[in-house]
Write a structure and sequence with these properties.
Blueprint: E1 4-11, E2 15-25, H1 30-39, E3 54-58, E4 63-68, H2 75-90, E5 96-100, E6 103-113, E7 121-130, H3 133-165, H4 179-183, H5 188-206, H6 229-236, H7 238-249, E8 253-258, H8 261-271, E9 282-286, E10 297-301, E11 313-319, E12 322-326, H9 337-347, H10 353-375, H11 382-389, H12 396-405
Parallel strand pairs: 8-10, 8-11, 9-10
Antiparallel strand pairs: 1-2, 1-7, 2-4, 3-4, 5-6, 6-7, 11-12
Length: 407
């Protein structure tokens, strides 16, 4: 399921209901899907009624943007839309971003003035749902701004009608009314379709959903790796994992040398996500040894000659599914704050893999910003800043390396 946008309302007779939803269909089956959506109907009250269906076609991408009340020919999507409709109109947080099962949703609820309603308000919401929570979170500010402009337009039109009907409101009992009646705009649903279509097209032009797949997906069957940082910790062993992480964060050269290049490459891909891009100069499947000044995360096969471990070089040999750490770096019990928080998060089993990845990304961003900030302050004036930022003595090597690399 790609992104779907829906306008929902609270009906006096049926409770939370979807008024109109807009989705996109690609490929050769688009015409058949469109016909199925448009020919399906259901009996509703006047407030839930949306007699028109709309289709916009993007000739360049062969995409059909389909708007109808509910896609009943797609039971799973219909069920999910009804679920988020109920949740959006019953949630006290606005806007609300939530994720359940395989899908996630951004919800914005709002009220519209109505002289014929109980309390003179009717509740609506606009929900945007997709599978990629990271994408939805990243787009939330843009989506929020655009949806707010749509909401403002609807509210202003309804307010004009309310001001006209207000003198006669006591002469009429409360009654259900459609959105077109509230705004006195017969083509309001056509406009909603146009707004939602533009938003879907703008979103898909610059961004696309990404369903993450494990970098260890094609790893050697003898090596039990699941593609996350925890599986790498289990594979390397807790002690070796800590030493490798410390060396990586402080700019030491990490050499992974093994008889399974897929596992070597997978481990490098996982490790490089823990440091800023400019702090990681990686080389995979190199034909010869590369100096630390050029590459600090090196992956080679067993046929490549590499130097013996020294201070500044940490070597991990992966042979027949087993890992052997070789290093002359002295052991320490004082790890940088970032490393301590990272290791603590990895060991916290209450965090699932998705939450753990978001947490580690936030930690990396935090210390990236700290390093950039300290680098801009003269050394003689940095003591108070270091104290304010909570930087300790064991963090200084990390700060020094990151600050230099991020220039």
């Amino acid at each position: 399921m790609s992104a779907v946008i829906a306008l929902c309302h609270f009906c006096d007779q049926h409770g939370p209901s979807v008024l109109i939803n807009t989705r996109v269909q690609y490929g050769t089956d688009s015409s058949r899907e469109t016909n199925s959506a448009l020919t399906t109907s259901t009996a509703t009250c006047c407030a839930c009624e949306m007699n028109s269906q709309f289709v916009s076609i993007d000739e360049k991408t062969q995409a059909n943007y389909i708007s109808c009340r509910m896609p009943y020919h797609l039971p799973k999507l219909s069920s999910w839309l009804q679920h988020v409709c109920v949740r959006s109109l019953s949630c006290e947080v606005n806007p609300c971003l939530f994720s359940e099962r395989e899908n996630c949703c951004l919800s914005l609820s709002f009220s519209v003035r109505d002289a014929m309603a109980r309390g003179f308000h009717r509740w609506f919401s606009i929900v945007i749902t997709m599978r990629d929570l990271a994408l939805l979170s990243g787009l939330s500010q843009f989506l929020h701004q655009f949806v707010n402009s749509v909401i403002k337009t609807i509210q202003e039109r309804a307010l004009q009608v309310y001001n006209l009907e207000k003198p006669f409101r006591f002469n009429n009992p409360p009654q259900s009314r459609s959105l077109s009646s509230l705004t006195r705009c017969n083509y309001i649903f056509a406009q909603v379709h146009t707004w939602f279509t533009w938003l879907l097209r703008a979103q898909s032009r610059y961004f696309s959903e990404c369903i993450p797949r494990s970098p260890y997906y094609h790893a050697h069957p003898d090596i039990a790796l699941d593609g996350d940082i925890r599986s790498l910790q289990s594979f390397l062993g807790p002690d070796s994992f800590k030493r490798v992480i410390l060396g990586l964060l402080e700019g030491k050269q990490i050499i992974l040398r093994g008889d399974n290049l897929t596992a070597v490459e997978s481990a490098i891909k996982t490790l490089k996500t823990l440091v800023p891009e400019k702090c990681c100069k990686d080389t995979m499947n190199a034909d010869e040894y590369v100096e630390p000044e050029i590459c600090n995360l090196l992956g080679v096969g067993t046929q490549v000659a590499v130097p013996q471990p020294t201070v500044g070089i940490i070597r991990v040999d992966i042979l027949q599914g087993n890992c052997h750490l070789r290093t002359l770096e002295p052991e320490t019990s004082r790890y940088p704050t970032y490393a301590n928080k990272l290791l603590k998060a990895v060991e916290n089993q209450t965090l699932n893999n998705k939450v753990l990845n978001y947490h580690l990304t936030a930690l990396k961003k935090e210390w990236t910003n700290i390093s950039k900030l300290i680098n801009r302050v003269p050394a003689e004036n940095s003591s108070a800043l270091l104290l304010a930022l909570g930087v300790q003595d064991q963090d200084k090597q990390l700060i020094k390396y990151w600050s230099t690399s991020l220039q």
